[in-house]
Amino acid sequence: MTIFLKMSVGVTFLRPFSRFLVPFTLHRKTNLYSTVLQRCMSSKIPAVSYPDKESISSPEQLELDGWKTTMKSSVQEEGVPPVSSNKDEDTQAATRELIEMWRLLGKEVPENITEEQLKAIMECASKSSKKKYLKFLYIKEKLKKAKQIKKERKAAAKEEAKQAMLLETTEEDKQQNFPFLRVWDRRINTAMNWKGAQAMQFGQPLVFDMDFDNYMKPKELQNAVSQLLESEGWNRRNVDPFHIYFCNLKIDGAYQRELVKRYGEKWDKLLLTATEKSHVDLFPKDNIIYLTSDSPNVMTTFKHDRIYVIGSFVDKNMQPGISLAKAKRLKLATECLPLDKYLQWDVGTKNLTLDQMMRILLCLKNTGNWEEALKFVPKRKHTGYLEISQHSQAFVNRLKKAKSFNSFPKGSYVHKEKVA
């Protein structure tokens, strides 16, 4: 009861002054609201100052060149490297980092990669192709290491056998044996070089067409160069070698770089002819025969007065008709080996390697016997020999009866007199 009375008394006391208090409170509230609104607007919308045109155009206040110099110096002091303008270096660095990351992940990546191999990796179109090429380099490096280890073990075993042999032999045996071996090796090399020099002057030309480097991948080109090295070695060791021509060999091309890399200092001392010219520019077209497995014309006998041309490329992607198309463009005669005539063909393509072609042609040149020549065809591709034709057998028998090739009249070839 006491509280209620006090509240009623307060209300009744303030009621006469209400008309004076209400305008005052409304005025105070309005000023408060406006002040708060202004503060909110000023905090959300930043004040924009419009500088004078004179201050913008004055170069003394801007000094952009000085500002750039200061920023560059500060970046260098902090140790932050400047942005590289050379995109090739950045790409090489990124490729090396990617290869290093794959190596850490345990993938098949070679330990040493040359600049040429790095460029080849950068030229790969996709990541899977890069992995395949790196795997190829890894396997190649692994085989090279295994071969080197095998070679070292073989040299060590040979040295041990030599030492054991030295303990058993006397001083007289040493003086007789070792000088003889050194002279024998020197004489062999001299005889081979002499035959190669004679072949370059009087030998039958054999052309390797090197105009197919654009059709091969780096791995296939390396295989082709390996086969060329084998071919040159077999030719050099033969009794009657060919005069080898490397035609359409581009200077500083992929083929020449790989050949110089393989041969090293011996490249300039090889007894063969390497030229940029085409075989059509060096020899008459009527004397040229292009050997290709796609030719419809089957080779019957070896012609000693013709120039045989072999397309120097490895075709693992199965691109048939490339060499045949080129021979037709140049209007050259084409032939293929009579594999179906003498061999029971089983599986695989009829494209032989360059060194196999070299050995077959050398055997045909020396003997004219197809059965002997086709022994160099891999046995995995056929199941045996067919019956040799009577014409070929009679020709071989006549050659065996002849004492030597010199018994024929001078200036004539064997195939001209013996083949009707």
UniProtKB/TrEMBL annotation:
Gene assigned in the entry: TRMT10C
Catalysed transformations (reactions): an adenosine in mRNA + S-adenosyl-L-methionine = an N(1)-methyladenosine in mRNA + S-adenosyl-L-homocysteine + H(+); adenosine(9) in tRNA + S-adenosyl-L-methionine = N(1)-methyladenosine(9) in tRNA + S-adenosyl-L-homocysteine + H(+); guanosine(9) in tRNA + S-adenosyl-L-methionine = N(1)-methylguanosine(9) in tRNA + S-adenosyl-L-homocysteine + H(+)
Species, as recorded: Ictidomys tridecemlineatus
Keywords from the UniProt entry: Coiled coil, Methyltransferase, Mitochondrion, S-adenosyl-L-methionine, Transferase, Transit peptide, tRNA processing
CDD domains cross-referenced by the UniProt entry: Trm10_MRRP1
GO cellular component, one term: tRNA methyltransferase complex
MF terms (GO), sorted A to Z: identical protein binding; tRNA (adenine(9)-N1)-methyltransferase activity; tRNA (guanosine(9)-N1)-methyltransferase activity; tRNA binding
Residue span, SAM-dependent MTase TRM10-type domain: 192-384
PANTHER family attached to this UniProt entry: TRNA (GUANINE-9-) METHYLTRANSFERASE, TRNA METHYLTRANSFERASE 10 HOMOLOG C
Biological process per Gene Ontology, one example term: mitochondrial tRNA 3'-end processing
Matches recorded under Gene3D superfamilies: 3.40.1280.30
Coiled-coil ranges per UniProt: none
Source species, domain of life: Eukaryota
Protein's name according to its UniProt entry: tRNA methyltransferase 10 homolog C
